[in-house]
Specification:
Layout (H helix, E strand, L loop, with lengths): L8 H13 L12 H18 L1 H7 L4 H22 L1 H4 L2 H15 L9 H12 L4 H12 L10 H23 L6 H19 L1 H6 L7 H6 L4 H6 L4 H21 L8 H23 L10
Length: 298
């Protein structure tokens, strides 16, 4: 089954194929102290368990090596996110940008320092599973947008942002799990956008308090809404109509992404399906709470 091509997809597919073609490591093992490496992976597993119950649960269904690898990937993403998320609370955007650049250098190192646990576990994962480094660079670039951009005019802009912060994770996971055809790239992009949009719909209130709105301004206006409505945090009939529209499109993205699971290696399909189902259920919870994403986190 071919996924329907949306107007925003060709540009994202181009970025994904560019990253894929940029090359992968031919080395299969890091020349590092094995004790340090075990400590690094244990640290990443603990970090995943602490910060993402859903990801930790879904990854339990993977074989041991792949499970460790996706948890190292999660830890890499977590560190990247935290640098930017702490910018407004702890230090300036300029300081965060400098720290992010230093982190990008460390995470791309061929042989990270033995006590740099996340960079070390991530380097081991990248090498073992031949994950293209360019995907990781695209993720860092995507997360860095939060330092300079806090509003989005169209869904196309939001999809491009979602590619950077979420589809890249799916594309890297795809290399860890294994896949049978480059066609899987298209589905990984769709699933990443679907997952990120679920995050966005769940976290409207929390994002507002951080000074960010990840909803398309043009679509808010279409439903008679604006920033004042989000600031007020009131569930009006216009808000319900807007959220129904967003959720319907989000579910369509999940439906279009689902056939891509069959292109993954058999031992990883259930974990990815479980992760998608866990996230998709957030949409049900939003509906059950009458679309109140201001005072309660689904």
């Amino acid at each position: 089954m071919q996924a329907q091509i949306q107007p925003w997809e060709p540009a994202l597919l181009s970025m994904a194929h560019e990253a894929h073609a940029a090359g992968r490591s031919v080395t299969k093992q890091l020349d590092v102290d094995r004790h340090n490496l075990e400590q690094a992976h244990s640290y990443c597993e603990a970090l995943t368990a602490t910060h993402s119950r859903s990801f930790h649960l879904a990854s339990r269904f993977l074989p041991v090596e792949k499970r460790r690898a996706v948890r190292a990937l999660y830890a890499f993403c977590r560190v990247t996110d935290d640098i930017v998320d702490h910018a407004s609370a702890d230090y300036s955007s300029a300081d965060a940008a400098e720290e992010l650049a230093a982190w990008q250098t460390r995470m791309a190192a061929a042989r990270p320092a033995g006590d740099d646990f996340v960079a070390l576990a991530w380097a081991d994962t990248r090498v073992r599973f031949a994950v293209p480094l360019r995907y990781a660079e695209q993720l860092v670039d995507g997360v860095a947008q939060d330092l300079t951009k806090s509003r989005y005019e169209t869904f196309e802009e939001l999809a491009a942002y979602s590619y950077g912060v979420a589809s890249t994770v799916g594309l890297m996971s795809m290399h860890i799990i294994g896949y049978s055809s480059p066609e899987a790239i298209r589905y990984a992009i769709k699933l990443g956008v679907a997952l990120q949009m679920t995050n966005i719909l769940r976290d409207v209130g929390e994002d507002w308090r951080r000074g960010r709105i990840y909803l398309p301004a043009a679509e808010l206006e279409q439903f008679g809404l604006g920033e004042g409505d989000i600031a007020a945090g009131k569930v009006s009939e216009n808000w319900r109509r807007f959220m129904r529209y967003q959720i319907e499109r989000n579910r369509q993205l999940y439906d279009e992404a689902l056939p891509g699971i069959a292109l993954l290696e058999a031992d990883g399909r259930f974990a990815i399906a479980a992760a998608a189902d866990l996230y998709r259920a957030i949409l049900d919870d939003i509906e059950a709470n009458d679309y109140d994403v201001f005072s309660r986190r689904a």
